[in-house]
Design a protein that fits this description.
The chain is α/β, with parallel strands linked by helices and about 375 residues long. The chain has helices at about 10-20, 25-30, 50-75, 95-100, 120-130, 140-145, 190-200, 220-230, 240-245, 270-275, 280-300, 300-310, 315-325, 340-350, 365-375; strands at about 30-35, 35-40, 80-85, 110-115, 135-140, 150-155, 165-170, 180-185, 210-215, 235, 250-255, 265-270.
Length: about 375
Amino acid sequence: MIELVRPKTFTKAEFFDEARSKSPLPLRERFRVRGSKIAPSPLSSPVEGEEVGIARVAFALILLLVAVLLPNLANTQTREKIRVALGSISVNSSVIPIGAQNGLFAKYGVDVEPIYFGGGMNSIAAVTSNSVQFLAAGSTATISARLGGADLMMLSVQSNKLDYSVMVNPEIKSPQDFKGKIVTGTRPGASADTALRLYIRKFGLEPDKDVVFISVGESQQGRFNALVRGVVVGTVLPPPYSTLAKQQGFRELADLRKVDLEFAGTSIAGYGAYIKSHQPAIENFFKGYIESLHFYRTQKEKTVAGIMKYLRISDRARAEEGYEYYLEMMPVVPYATSAGVKSVLQFLAPRQPKALTANPEEFYDNSFLKRIDESGFTKPFAIRR
């Protein structure tokens, strides 16, 4: 039961006596009497202590307004725009689009826009022309471009393993059966192209001499289509396309993840001038990227849904297979390694002799990742799953 407190009542004489004891002003300036009602005069000034009360009320109102408006003001602040050229449309390359979709880059003040350009020189041209700020694709094209004088620098490597299956026509029983046949790795410089060339060389065949390489469009879908239509006898595919190929009667000649070779795969690279002039934005980008990798490892349902949307597939089983294939390959901190880059340089050496004497450490810069890692930022994300 709430007890209502009634205000104290005064007779007119009592009211004037009370007012005289508290007000330093003449009553004619302090109050007006209208019949039996007494009202404050518009000419009156505050009583002692009233200024403090008014100030406190005003300050409280200001604090309230700040509390209500500040979050909205923060959300409407202009975020740093970073466009990222994607070298392929695949489960492996889905990390950045899914992270952006779930607000993991915006959380650190970065507005990320992933754009598919395809691997090889298409994406390189986009970065060097400043159409995009970063390239997320196989490292081979980036390292090759730097050997040729382009001011490109890798800032991370998502995986130092070859993440493909070699899928072939049933007539191909061994790597030697590729001799004189046509294959595809999308286009020169693409990560798939590099992987297939490395595999063929491993068995003593020389790409473009013993085996014919052709270019196709649409990345993985394009390679899959070329295989199914009989344009090529072999290509490299990750899930879910490798599984689809098996269902079409093609066979897996090799799982390149099991090849004993450390090779710099999907990397994020930027142009030198941009890296020097946008260091805070780059650091924030990589915070979002590290959290996106963590999101992939720990948020299976949302990630599988994101993969389905990104690859435009409706078969959840296909998307889930691709998710599981890459799960253990997603690092906590995506450092580039000297050994991984050295393998790329060795691969490039026959066509770019400079690669033979090049220092691997001149092709990547781990300083942004190290600074983030040493700050303690990555500790909450160290959980694998």
